[in-house]
Write a structure and sequence with these properties.
Largest sheet: 5 strands, mixed
Strand order of the largest sheet: 2-1-3-5-4
Mean pLDDT: 90
Low-confidence stretches: none
Radius of gyration: 15 Å
Length: 182
């Protein structure tokens, strides 16, 4: 089953697109599911860790942030195959084209990084994010068609609670990205 955000958005108001790896296996854990979805809870914590004054997921949305996943179908295992990323990147490419005023794309995890690099190569361009460990790449500045692109770690789902060092780096990346929206 494919997971595509169905919320009411105003594309001209979106300044930042945060791309996570894959939709969760259960729809009630997805962004925009309402209530207490796992993706909403961990993302809210990530923004609060970054010092952004928000009390709800809705508050984040009101800042002009849009959330999506590189892989639209629910993740069923630990890894995601390269062919799946390549195939699903066409949907992500279409989705990203809806936001011509976005200033920032945050690539939350290796799958999101690979999907955006696949989009760039399909368009005859070089990789947006070079090969290497995310930890080392975070200090670079990357752009794609005038949009600042941040490689970071996954903030959505249960893995957010595992490594405190990654949680700190996610907060730093969100702080830096948000500073570009002011």
């Amino acid at each position: 089953m494919y997971r595509v955000p169905s919320n009411q958005i105003q594309p001209d108001k979106i300044q930042m697109v945060m791309i996570s790896e894959a939709a969760p296996g259960k729809m009630e854990d997805y962004y925009y599911s309402g209530g207490e979805s796992l993706f909403e809870k961990t993302t809210l914590l990530a923004f609060q860790d970054a010092g952004v004054s928000v009390k709800s997921f809705k508050d984040i949305l009101s800042l002009g942030v849009y959330f999506t996943t590189a892989i639209k179908c629910g993740k069923t295992g630990y890894g995601i195959k390269t062919d799946t990323i390549k195939e699903c990147s066409t949907l992500l490419e279409e989705e990203l084209s809806l936001f011509p005023y976005a200033k920032v794309w945050m690539l939350m995890g290796d799958v999101a990084i690979q999907a955006v690099n696949t989009i760039a190569r399909r368009q005859g361009e070089k990789r947006v994010i070079p090969a290497g460990s995310t930890c080392k790449l975070r200090s670079g500045e990357y752009y794609y068609h005038g949009v600042r692109v941040f490689p970071s770690y996954l903030q959505a789902g249960p893995s957010f609670f595992i490594e405190k060092s990654k949680r700190t780096m996610i907060a730093q990346d969100i702080q830096q990205a948000m500073s570009l929206l002011k």
